[in-house]
Amino acid sequence: MNFLKENIQEVEKNIEEACRKSNRNPKDITLICVSKTKPVEMIEALVHLGYVSFGENKVQELVGKIEHFENVEHPKLDLHPKLDWHLIGHLQTNKVKYIVDKVSLIHSVDSMKLAAEIDKEARKKNVIANILIETNIANEDTKFGVTKEACLDLVKDISRLENVRIQGLMTIAPYVSDGEENRVHFKALRELARMIESCSIENVSMKILSMGMTGDYQVAIEEGATHIRVGTGIFGERQYHI
Ligand SMILES: *Cc1c(COP(=O)(O)O)cnc(C)c1O
Which residue, 7, 14, 71, 205, is the most exposed by fewest CB within 10 angstroms? Predict the structure, then answer.
């Protein structure tokens, strides 16, 4: 699977270039390899190249892949640090229990109802769930996420939950042919995070900005992304058989 190595080296090069432009350190950027619809063999190949952070958007697929890697029949992988799984897609409340103690970060929390369910399940399993607030920064009808205007109030409400820790914001920017068009949205998300940070809400951190995908991650980095979510740029086009 040489193409994976070539693709990810290209992504690394682009990350470095965006960091150079914006005076940032590439070490401050977490590259989440978005492996949805892709087989575990591809994830394994990336693990062997030293990558540990993977993102999935469907609970069932995520759980299946996590179980695959927990399986003791992967002795070669013992050498590697524990994998770091991210739930990046819409999460239904009835599925929270399957993933709450298995992922390092839930990127897609956009309601108090969902946060309360995460809190409840996290308490049962005696863990603190790290979450991001998904914000529909461009106000698209088709997107999940809280509006920019409602974000602060939601953060304040969720901050009272004991087993949930808000670590920052996430957005899925509009699909555009030129990533540059999304700069304004990435800037807006960063400014929203700054505004919330300035409120010094107990139990709330704004240290993570999860923004930028294959078409626009360089722009997102220039505008302050700490976590980028790249699928196609690493794994190639996805095929959906539905
Ligand atoms: C699929 C997906 C990505 C990756 O998209 P690419 O354009 O393939 O890089 C990133 N974030 C979320 C939430 C996704 O669902």
Answer: 71
